[in-house]
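Intended use. Records like the one below are meant for learning the mapping from a protein sequence to its folded structure. Do not use them to infer anything beyond what is encoded.
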Amino acid sequence: MDGFRKSLFATIVAIVVPLTQADAAGSAFDGAWNVRISSSSETCGNGASVAIGISNGQIASSSAAVTASGRVADAGSINVTLSTGIKRAVGSGRLSGTSGSGTWRGAMCSGTWTAERI
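Structure written out for the chain above:
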């Protein structure tokens, strides 16, 4: 039984250690980002900016006024949802190095976004 326990422990360590090391390494896109949102329609407004944070590839808002959630893949593709009150927008695109861009859509509006690492 003692040999079985040692073997089981070694197997668990072999699986868990690489996973925790990958999480500890974080994402190449971790940090603070400023996102500028533009609309294709004047009636929807234009020129809003939102600060977001990325930690281990997970997106969170850096503002109490806007809730952000989503994920950035290791290769830089991004999917994000921004909401404030009853308004909600879903965006996608790509980050590369210290910048990024993509498109977004809401219930009645759509447009583009650009991002810069702060």
